[in-house]
Fold this protein.
Amino acid sequence: MMSLKIVAQPSCAIFCAILFFCSISSSRSEGLKGYDAAWKDMQSLQFSEANKAFRQPAEASIERERSLGEGISLLSLQPRTPSNVERARALFAELAKGDSADRISNIARFFEARVLEVHSNPMQPLEAEKKYRALLELRTGLPLAELSAAKLAQILLYREMSQKEVQETLADLERLEPLLQTAAGRREFHAAVGMALLDRNEMPEAALRHLLAADQEGLLRASTETQSWVSIGRLAEQLKQPELAQKYYRKFLAKYLRDNRSYDISLRLEALNKTLEPST
Amino acid sequence: MTRERVLNLIGFSLLIVCFALSVARIVSAKWFTKTSSGENIITIRLAHWQLEAGVREAFEAIGREYEAKHPNVRVRSIPIPERIYLNWLRTQVVGGTAPDIVEIGQGITSDMLARYFVPLGDVINKPNPHNVSTSLADTPLRETFFDGMQGGFNSDLLEYFGVPVSIVTVRIFYNLDLLKKITGNESIPATYEEFVALCEKVKDYSLRTGMPIVPIAGSKYNGPMLMDRLFSSQTQRLTADFNTTGEGGAGSGRIIERYFAGKWQTTSPEIESGFALAREVGGYMQPGFMQLQRDDATFMFLQARSLMICTGSWDVTSIAQQAAFPLGIGPIPLPTKDHPRYGRYVKGFVSEAGSNASLPFGLTKSSKHPEIALDFLLFLGSKAMAKVFTDVSGWLPAIVGVESSPRSKGFALETAGFSGGFVLGNLGPDTRRVLDTNFYRLIDPSSSSKEFLEMLNLEFAKTFVSDQKRATRSRWENIIRSDSLLGASSWLAGGHISESTDSPTDEDRFLHASTINDRAYYSDRLVLDQIKKAQ
């Protein structure tokens, strides 16, 4: 046993030395890169690695970024615990304090509202609504902050309510439009309102108006584009706007001929073409 | 020398021997990894679960083609049985030893994709370099696939991870020798009426000759393929009525909401008619088929104990190689609008245009040679290799403008027609379980279908709620997970605002994903609220 111990000791020392140098070089490279690697880890769903990195103490200049990163990574960290959600909320609340208008404060304000909306148990939609409204009033010009308008639309339009209440809610939401300065903010807001009205099967004029506005900003996914274009066509037909329906059905067939709705759309277009033909 | 000292020496010697052996193995492996010109040989490994005849050979043929162009590369195909594929892959990716290229599917989750696979990113918007001097030379990779590469797209992560290589469709396979013996000709039924008449002829032939032949070989794998398609022909109009805004088919939430709103029940004429069709066709399969496995049905068909089997294009080469009779392939003959009994609820021919390309292969992050692996992946997705794939495997190609092999001709997508109707089993796992466990009652000629449908109504009132709750919970988990992605992408965007939708940034994609995921969650939750109100 003794001889083995003697043999093992120098190798242990070498091993420890290697570990020591590795840890030094690794912490040095982390220091050089700031938290970029941790943000990228988070973007590729490696939440525990990101959270671990964000829990390391930071220099004062990047302490607020660290807090923000820790808070956001806690939202998806497994296992999900009420204390993690509460810590995230507290971190966001601290960063959002005061009237600072920097990016970190505004991102934190968005996530403070988001925690109340969907992460906390029980969810607190009314509190979230207040926070989203306050953030929109700041006119940050930040796409994430402007996503608050879409979130507000979804909180408010998916409640059980009467037709009159839907109309009032919509009018209230439409007053937010002037606060949106980015194309992304407008696109998401109009898409959220248009789709919510489709899901409610109410107010077809308003649904059409918002879907058209979202389309004008440019829809990003083929699936959203196909759904919106077909819905615009169907709503336009329903509202006796055959030229508009014709335009969107043509766009659809030109771009998505392989979609399983294309046969149905081509029949609809054929019928529209007949009705729009000048009578001889 | 003490006993302890001897044991130590033995242990130490063993350690040295093992070490020496390892060194020798590594060195010898190095010696054999050089080409005749002295270049290092690089091995690209490709894992998949397609053990069907022809597919392995196709991947090997493509590998040889690549090796011929790149003498320093060896491509090794690793077929893994379907049953253990996911567990095997999980072990490999966690251990960092996953093959370079892996078939995606079999329960590989979005988490696994994000963690262990390389997103294809901008590669999909550039022409495939292996399509040079073909008609697709200038076409972006994504557009070279008949489905716009949707088969390789992950909607949770809003990223393309897979390069698909085939399309699959479901058809009815016929034993042409037996068909001729029974009917006097090889004519395959074109309509539902002809199909039923043929099934009756088989039954009659079996009775007359005493030969134990059933019309259709069924199993819990093959049976629902046929019966679900027939059932969906009867819910086609109903589904279209529920989907007034023309979105891509009414989702399960909307179907369930309509159920609680009293718009349909299991005793509704459309559903009754769907079950009547399933009962009629199920009666032409062997008794107890829902207790049998896929292999049992295939074996029965190969032994000529059934005239037909309903299965997918993936089985064509395996069955053709093993069958001692010529094969006929025909579509599933759905009732048309003119059918006297089942035509009332049919809207029209069902289109297969919405099908996505399948067999997507992705690049793993643990690949030791990611550039070469990606190049091979693009080679696999090229027009020339799609031709090799279809010719050797007999499967349909996924690339536009590639002629299918003669074996796969009968499987071509039928693109004209309307969307199909909903299928009860797709409304959720609890609903599917109730259907499967009670299916025998539908087929049993002594049981009353009215009793069966009323029992289902009672059961569905519970399973629809639990399935809807599960779906809502799953939507919620999706939005919870995507919030951190949204935050990270927003931070990494650095406040830069993209005004162009032609090349959206990661932040743009995650902002939009957040709206879409929230919409799915809120609309499912609204359905739950409406169910509560209706109850």
Summary: Chain B touches chain A through 69 residues (CB under 8 Å).
